[in-house]
What we know:
Blueprint lengths: L13 H11 L6 H8 L4 H14 L2 E6 L2 E6 L6 H8 L1 H14 L7 E5 L1 H4 L8 E7 L5 H19 L3 E7 L10 H9 L1 E4 L2 H9 L1
Parallel strand pairs: 4-5
Antiparallel strand pairs: 1-2, 3-4, 3-6
Helix pairs in contact: 1-4, 2-3
Organism: Pseudonocardia broussonetiae
GO molecular function: nucleotidyltransferase activity
Pfam families: NTP_transf_2
Amino acid sequence: xxxxxxxxxxxxxxxxxxxxxxxxxxxxxxxxxxxxxxxxxxxxxxxxxxxxxxxxxxxxxxxxxxxxxxxxxxxxxxxxxxxxxxxxxxxxxxxxxxxxxxxxxxxxxxxxxxxxxxxxxxxxxxxxxxxxxxxxxxxxxxxxxxxxxxxxxxxxxxxxxxxxxxxxxxxxxxxxxxxxxxxxxxxxxxxxxxxxxxxxxxx
Length: 203
């Protein structure tokens, strides 16, 4: 799946991208406004999609001068399903947080990084995960937890999970690690404190 295009899991069309924006942002949009948010597709294509979705009743269309304003009809029977799909990225991050919070040996810090964090995923993208474990962790316990999580991530998303792992001590002064710089710039924290990581890496 693509966390940046969550409704593509059911339909890889412009309809899915339009619905995702309307579901995440509970506000009225003109065709041009949606075009600017999407950053792709033609205004004419977006207009055709909005007209089709309006006929289905899932999108409300209201005239405002020479233009129309469109927003998701949240009373529609399908609206709750659309909203849930549109928020798959936050659901995924929350599930990671909850899972690791229950670990016998939780990470000192964890973050999703790479294309999942920058919004550039493709269906074939790996899901990149940074895990920092305590220096005195039991390797048996830790490895068992991590292996189960990586399997679950693949089951949850259909994407392979790729792990970057550090001990807390090894992070000290590791400011020349390009991947850690990427995590600090774009990473989505799911355990621990981002400021702690920043202090550690910068020594």
